[in-house]
Design brief:
The complex is a heterodimer of chains A (about 325) and B (about 270). With about 325 residues, chain A is α/β, with parallel strands linked by helices. Chain A has 2 domains: about 230 residues, P-loop containing nucleotide triphosphate hydrolases (Rossmann fold), CATH 3.40.50.300; about 60 residues, YebC, transcriptional regulation domain (Alpha-Beta Plaits), CATH 3.30.70.980. Helices cover about 35% and strands about 25% of the residues of chain A. In chain A, the strands form 3 sheets. Chain A has a 6-stranded mixed sheet, sandwiched between helices. In chain A, α9 crosses α11. Chain A starts with a helix and ends in a 6-residue tail after the last helix. Chain B has one domain. Chain B is about 75% helix and about 0% strand. Chain B has 11 helices and 2 strands; from the N terminus they run αααββαααααααα. In chain B, a hairpin with a 5-residue loop joins β1 and β2. The chains are: A alpha/beta (about 325), B mainly alpha (about 270). At the A-B interface, α3 and α4 of A face α2 and α5 of B.
């Protein structure tokens, strides 16, 4: 068993995760539809997509807690169907919903979790103290879990996932629902892990999170992968350099039929604003005014992954 | 019939043997939890003692002697005490296997977190049940010690009442855990209470089986607590007979079926 693992990890170029035609069905519903992807050692890899796209299901299959319906999946070179416990021993999992043990204190949560991995009790205690330091929760070590803020619970969950010193971390929407300060603290901790060489796989529907943390990502929509690449490459490939956002007074946008034609490479009409895609956004906004149009606000910005997603699916990420 | 227990054993026995170390870590978790709230543990200890004082000794003065196992007359206190031990073993295990188990399964998602580690579904089932048994075992030991000064322990066979109480806890705990996996709301547990109360009152607990009309007697003999009560009563009074083996077999099969159902259901609920 340990030989298998050693080969998988030390074999040059072998991906940490290898999926071909990976499919998950729940009855007639297809949650993940024949997706292919590889994650290399040391990489930070993201699944970007709206809720219900199949990101969490993909993560659960990788984590060995959801049986694969069809296709090939290898995690750390092993098949989750036959080597679940061996794989999970080397994973750090941060689930979407905090599953901290509210009957235990902050520190006990880490110690007991380490015990589930079969680590000696003293080692669990040593690592627990180290990790509490890392996620800045040392002061709360002996407190109950319930009164902690959302950001603290998230940090504790991340500390918990690190107790077995994982080779691969799976983070399912790590910062959803957190305030901006809590998000930045979390991003900083994840960035440090990445610097140390930990392989991160995360799901998110925040494009800024994907841009911050991911070296490479796949965009998922309706159970399928619709694009793959680095954030920068995806933007270059599927969007223009800049975007001009126009917001018109209520009722005006509907009367603009044809009046914006030819101003940009591509125009997206959203319910509350119009997006004009061009490489020189300033020039576009000048041209709009030259045509006598008076938007309430005009904003020129760089293209983001949100624009890529909009281009690929015709919808925004958070609906 | 003989095929089922064999299949059940084939599935569970290897896990009992190899999964026990990992299951033990879940027991360790529960010890951590109860280290702080040890006072809760006491409630299960006092309940059978209150019944013993109130019904066994209080009511016993009015009742006098009744026919014990094997037919010889015994004091009513001696008649009731073993039944209370059996009922306490049932209650303790069910309490742990319903409310506490449901909370961890549906509300706190404790098991979801645990299954992200090398722990397997069977480890969870066996660990939870093992903890329920440890708790029940402590009550059984305490109760057996308490009845010594009442002069109710007259044979070394009475010591076997403790493993017998564990067997009752195993049977009821496993079945109750299996039932809990089907529960969706806290209200569903009223159903379990509806089953426990008649079992507690009519399993030959407070009056001998011979006082029932024939059809009812057969019905009672088919229910599980009756087997537990008669087993422990025979051991404490010190009357051995082959029918005790039937009791042991009944409770063992019941527990194993429960354990297999729990493992399957947890697999279905948690590994989707």
């Amino acid at each position: 068993m340990s030989d298998d693992t050693a080969v998988a990890l030390d074999g040059a170029g072998l991906p940490l995760i290898h999926a071909r035609g990976l499919t998950k069905r729940f009855g007639a519903f297809i949650a993940v539809d024949a997706v292919d992807f590889d994650v290399q050692k040391g990489e930070s890899f993201g699944f970007l997509g709206p809720n219900g796209a199949g990101k969490t299901t993909a993560m659960r299959m990788i984590g060995g807690v959801s049986p694969v319906s069809e296709g090939t999946l290898r995690v750390l070179g092993l098949d989750p169907a036959t080597h679940g416990p061996q794989i999970r021993a080397r994973l750090g999992v941060v689930p979407q919903q905090d599953s901290l043990d509210t009957e235990l204190t902050v520190r006990e949560n880490l110690v007991i979790y380490g015990r589930y991995f079969g680590l000696p009790r003293d080692e669990c205690k040593r690592r627990a103290d180290e990790l509490l330091e890392f996620v800045q929760l040392s002061e709360r070590a002996n407190d109950q879990v319930d009164p902690l803020s959302g950001g603290m619970k998230r940090r504790l969950t991340i500390a918990r996932s690190l107790i077995n010193e994982p080779d691969l971390m799976l983070l399912d929407e790590p910062t959803t629902g957190l305030d901006p300060q809590a998000r930045h603290l979390l991003w900083d901790r994840l960035y440090r892990l990445k610097q140390k060489g930990t392989t991160l796989v995360l799901t998110t529907h925040y494009m800024d999170e994907a841009e911050q943390l991911c070296d490479r990502l796949v965009v998922m929509d309706k159970a399928k992968i619709v694009a793959e690449g680095s954030p920068r490459a995806l933007i270059a490939q599927h969007s223009t350099k800049e975007v001009t956002e126009l917001r018109f007074p209520v009722g005006i946008q509907e009367t603009l039929d044809g009046k914006l034609d030819g101003l940009a490479e591509r125009i997206e009409w959203l319910p509350d604003r119009v997006l004009l895609y061009a490489n020189d956004g300033e020039a576009v906004s000048v041209a709009v005014h030259e045509r006598g149009l008076r938007p309430e606000t005009t904003m020129v910005r760089r293209s983001t992954l949100e624009d890529v997603f909009l281009r690929l699916t015709g919808r925004t990420l958070i609906e | 019939m003989s095929g089922l227990p064999a299949a059940v054993l084939g599935r569970v026995a290897p896990q009992l043997a190899f999964g026990s170390r990992r299951a033990g870590r879940l027991i360790e978790r529960n010890i951590y939890v109860y280290r702080r709230s040890w006072i809760i543990i006491f409630s299960g200890f006092f309940e059978p003692i209150f019944y013993l004082l109130g019904i066994g000794i209080g009511l016993g003065r009015l009742v006098g002697d009744v026919a014990g196992p094997g037919g010889a007359p015994i004091s009513y206190t001696l008649f009731v005490a073993p039944a209370l031990l059996a009922s306490a073993a049932m209650n303790g295990a069910i309490l742990e296997a319903t409310f506490n188990f449901f909370f961890k399964l549906r509300w706190q998602k404790t098991f979801d977190a645990i299954l992200s580690t090398p722990m397997a579904v069977a480890d969870v089932a066996i660990g939870e049940l093992g903890w329920a048994l440890i708790r029940g075992g402590l009550y059984a030991i305490a109760f057996t010690i308490v009845i010594v000064p009442f002069g109710l322990v007259t044979t070394p066979l009475a010591l076997l009442a403790i493993p017998a109480a564990l067997l009752i806890g195993f049977a009821f705990g496993a079945l109750a855990m299996a039932a809990t996996t089907f529960m969706r709301t806290w209200q569903d547990f009223d159903l379990i209470q509806m089953i426990i109360l008649p079992l507690f009152l009519f399993s030959g607990t407070f009056f001998p089986l011979e006082t029932y009309p024939e059809p009812l007697r057969i019905l009672v003999q088919l229910t599980p607590l009756y087997h537990g009560v008669d087993l422990i009563r025979s051991l404490i009074v010190g009357v051995l007979s082959p029918v005790l083996l039937v009791h042991v077999a009944y409770l063992t099969v019941m527990g194993l079926i429960g354990l297999v159902v729990v493992s399957r259901r947890l697999d279905k609920l948690l590994r989707t």
